[in-house]
Amino acid sequence: MEYDKKIIELALSLYKIDAVKFGEFMTKSGINTPVYFDLRVIVSYPEVMELITSLLYEFAIVDSKFEHVCGVPYTALPIATLLSVKVKKSMLMRRKEAKSYGTKKVIEGHYKVGEKCLIIEDVVTSGSSVMETVNDLRKEGLKAEEAIIILDREQGGRQNLEVNDVKMKALLTMSKLIEILVENNKINKATANDVKYYLQNVKAPNTVAKINRMALAFEKRAEMSKNAIAKQLFNIMAVKKTNLCISVDLTSSTQILELLEKVGNHVCLVKTHVDIIEDFSSDFITSLKELAKKYNFLILEDRKYADIGNTVALQYTGGLYNISNWADCVTCHSLPGEGILKALNIKSNCDKGVFLLAEMSCEGNLITPEYTNETVKMAEKYPDLITGFVCQHKDTFKDPGVIQLTPGVQLQSSKDDLGQVYNTPEKVVLENGGDVIVVGRGIVSAKNPESEAILYKDTLWKCYIKRISGKVE
């Protein structure tokens, strides 16, 4: 009851200080409105600031778990400051533009990747201003999943934010505010009816886009992953600062091990074709696993399963190679249908992964856009199993917790005699959205594989940093 009295007091206070205006106005979203909220004036009224701070704390913050608060520039900054002091929590500040000097930061303050930040905003129409702040925080690896609002105009902002995994809480809605003002004879019913009609018939344009995975850091995407191997791989890439996968297409186990001793420090993933190794043995697997632990990389067996579920289960867990015993993840086709994923899901014990082939890099392959779309839909039913997709385009899938594995990369564009098309690191990472990039002959056949691996690693990583910085030209 006391809380309801404070809400009424707030509504009447906002009207009294002319923070609520009636007439003909245009919002930031570009729509005409019969009511406008100018909450910038509240900084001149300490008692109103104190009331808002108290209400936000009681209504939305007291039970929330977070490490930081961040106000959306600029009106919400003083409220965020007061809340930070009240709850004794760190405050972060987002710049609308990065500094051109010094650290060139967009987010100011001390924080760690994975910490939660509560967003503070004054008014929400479409939610675009909130999402600008959310996106910048997420690029830094922070969790930004909750926004606390003074006033919800009820024109689609809440729904737009929910699409982007942001939960919104508001002290007041437009409807509630109008109701209070009518009951207290501050506006007449005709004005109230105009506003109600407006609310029913005018929605803000949906300018809030779904989060673009290409703009997110690997640390943040690790938090969004449902597959254990995807989480692990994202974190390895972030720690080692490499998104290079080497394809060890060699037929000698000794040659493979010698190569990995040279390049293991520079890769996040090693892709094998175990069935081409002429001297395969359990000793080779033991040595391979030891190198993976020593150099902190994962193992992908590029088996490309493409049979019925029962057969694939046997191929995966038994036979000469017993792949499930040593490979962190495998590749498979979606051609046989969902049964293949059911089988691998059962046998993976929730600690393995699958890269599903959605596209191929060889010229003249028969995969169609329809096939690719159905492959992605099939994968969505098995989020705990799917590490990612083998594909060539950034729009193949949207889930930021899933990895795009892209083969067919060389420092210079080319094509071999068997129709394999090679793209440059810049094209694959910046334009096509590749996360983990597969390089085979470009390193394996080099006179100095280690120096070549370093060159690829550095080039690919620079492209990734450029991508998440938003400086793609």
What does this structure look like?
- The chain has 473 residues and is α/β, with parallel strands linked by helices.
- The protein has 17 helices and 18 strands.
- α1 runs antiparallel to α2.
- The mean pLDDT is 90.
Concise account of the structure shown:
Keywords: Decarboxylase, Glycosyltransferase, Lyase, Multifunctional enzyme, Pyrimidine biosynthesis, Transferase. Its EC number is 2.4.2.10, 4.1.1.23. It contains 17 helices and 18 strands.
Features:
17 helices, EC 4.1.1.23, alpha/beta, six-stranded mixed beta sheet, EC 2.4.2.10, elongated, 40% helix, 473 residues, orotidine-5'-phosphate decarboxylase activity
Q: What does the secondary structure layout of this molecule look like, with pairings?
A:
Elements: H1 2-16, E1 20-26, E2 32-37, H2 46-61, E3 68-71, H3 77-87, E4 90-94, E5 107-108, E6 116-124, H4 128-139, E7 143-152, H5 157-163, E8 167-173, H6 174-183, H7 189-201, H8 218-224, H9 228-240, E9 244-247, H10 253-263, E10 269-272, H11 282-295, E11 298-305, H12 309-317, E12 329-333, H13 339-348, E13 353-357, H14 369-379, E14 386-390, E15 403-406, E16 414-415, E17 421-422, H15 425-431, E18 436-439, H16 441-444, H17 449-468
Parallel strand pairs: 3-4, 3-6, 6-7, 7-8, 9-10, 9-18, 10-11, 11-12, 12-13, 13-14, 14-15, 15-18
Antiparallel strand pairs: 1-2, 4-5, 16-17
Helix pairs in contact: 1-2, 2-3, 6-7, 8-9, 10-11, 12-13, 15-17
